[in-house]
Design brief:
about 65% helix, mainly alpha, globular, two-stranded antiparallel ribbon
């Protein structure tokens, strides 16, 4: 284990982060000149960028290295510690702009608000401790949403794409940041693969921004909502989220791009090269479509058929279909945007949405959750076990995309499922101990572990996380990190064997 190499690479990440702060700095300058917004945001981003850059340069150039390659251990350490570090320095604009007033609060408590908001951004969770969003300046709103966009495809993958010095050990970082059952390598060079994925990400982002502007959104709002959509993050510039616009057109545009963001980006790349059939040949994608279609159908039927408090939620099939489709897509892709308060829906609809919180998007997408492919493999494994009882000597391999899944992959999936449910139960107990009712505790846990944002109870779609106990904010921030890096990359750091040698 080379600690020097780890800190050297973390320095490179901070240099990248400092560079990204120039974008909200430009927004601050524009709106200070054009709209007379306060200078505090301008100075906040200048100071934040300078501090981040200095620390990055110190880590990069104060550590002398011979030519070394990032190994497996270093890769996991860099990714896990990198996300913690990026979120830590991402709090600086909130701190220096005074977004969260610290009057009467201890520094530990005040910092918990800043770190929670920063981690929710970079992890693409979209949970917020802000009670009034529209009072924020344009620069701060942009930074919240932009942090989503950076975290969506992965700040480490971005570094692999633009920093040649990471090229040798880039695959270790690439795998550690997306440790799921499928990590597609589109070209022999991992840096080129990272560039291609970011290229697709950029193209879809430009396209959605243009379409939203056609729906009479301002360029600023279109950009911010595109950042939240493509990263499946969910930070909005409006208190009422996407529901503020009350536009069928905007709902449908965002709904379509949430669907694309929840799909494996390798499929988008192949489709752009003319291989449209790759979508329909991919088993996980077909499973993803089936889950979405069934969920929308059931919720549409349920919200027009059954009464809640003496009233049917929607009076027409079209209205029911519109809101059901948006919320299903928002939850299954872990975006977290809202056009309706689904806690006012019938119990069956709420149960379906909670189930989708565990499912998440496809492997290789920007979505969180446990991923569709893992559930698909578990279902296939369960079916195989039933057949094995009938035919004890039969060889029954698990297949995805007409290829047999190696036993070690199935072991990985089963282990992931056990860890996910176990951590979910433990954190739910912790949050209940810190004062939340059981529904709110479970809702907050799955909403952060699944990188979704809105949960149930006191952290539902019409609420926020400001009331959570200080310790609870740090616990949920850790859950966001676990969910974003899919457990193993973080949990491996707690193994004593990892640090030996």
């Amino acid at each position: 284990m080379s600690l020097k190499l780890i800190f050297h690479t973390l320095g490179n990440l901070l240099i990248c982060l400092a560079g990204t702060m120039l974008f909200p700095l430009g927004v601050a300058i524009y709106y200070q000149v054009g709209a007379g917004e306060a200078k505090s945001d301008l100075s906040a981003f200048v100071i934040s960028a300078i501090i981040t850059l200095i620390v990055g340069l110190v880590l990069r150039f104060s550590i002398r290295l011979r030519q070394e390659e990032l190994g497996i251990r270093e890769g996991f350490a860099v990714v896990a510690l990198g996300w913690v570090t990026v979120a830590l320095f991402g709090t600086l604009p909130y701190v220096f702009a005074g977004v969260f007033h610290i009057d009467g609060r201890s520094p530990w408590t005040a910092f918990s608000f800043c770190y929670f908001e920063s981690m929710a951004g970079f992890s693409t969770t979209g949970a917020t401790v802000l009670t009034e969003i529209e009072h924020l300046s344009h620069a701060m709103l942009f930074w919240r949403s932009f942090s989503h966009w950076l975290g969506g495809m992965g700040i480490v993958v971005l570094a692999v794409a633009i920093l040649p010095m990471l090229g040798v050990g880039g695959m270790q970082l690439f795998r550690a940041e997306a440790p799921g059952p499928q990590t597609d390598r589109l070209t022999p060079r991992i840096a080129q693969t990272a560039k291609l994925l970011w290229g697709v990400y950029l193209l879809l982002s430009f396209l959605e921004t243009g379409l939203l502007m056609l729906g009479n959104m301002s360029l600023f709002d279109a950009l911010c909502h595109t950042f939240g959509t493509m990263a499946t993050g969910g930070f909005s510039t409006k208190n009422a989220s996407v529901g503020h616009y009350d536009s069928v057109y905007i709902d449908m545009v965002i709904c379509c791009f949430m669907f694309l963001a929840g799909t494996n980006f390798a499929l988008h790349y192949r489709a752009l090269r003319g291989d449209i059939k790759s979508y329909f040949q991919d088993t996980e994608f077909k499973f993803y479509c089936i889950v979405i279609a069934v969920s929308i159908t059931l919720i549409s039927w349920n919200t027009i058929r059954f009464e809640v408090d003496g009233q049917v939620p929607y009076d027409s099939m079209w209205t029911s279909l519109r809101y059901a489709a948006f919320q299903v897509m928002s939850i299954i892709t872990t975006t977290g945007y809202g056009t309706a308060d689904f806690e006012q829906w019938p119990a069956l609809s709420q149960f379906i949405l909670v189930t989708l919180m565990f499912y998440g998007g496809c492997a290789g997408s920007t979505g969180g959750g446990m991923k569709q492919v893992r559930f698909l493999l578990l279902i296939k494994q369960s079916g195989a076990e039933i057949k094995r009882l009938i035919f004890p000597h039969a060889v029954l391999p698990i297949r995805v995309n007409d290829r047999a899944v190696p036993p070690e992959v199935m072991t990985n999936v089963l282990g992931f499922f056990f860890f996910f449910i176990g951590i979910f139960a433990i954190v739910t107990c912790i949050m209940a101990t810190l004062g939340l009712d059981l529904v709110s505790a479970a809702g907050a846990t799955i909403a952060t572990m699944g990188n979704i944002g809105p949960g149930l109870g006191s952290v539902g779609p019409a609420d926020n996380y400001a009331h959570i106990h200080t310790a609870g904010k740090y616990v949920l921030s850790f859950c966001m990190l676990l969910g974003r890096l899919e457990l193993y990359t973080v949990l491996i750091l707690f193994s004593p064997n990892f640090w030996k040698g």
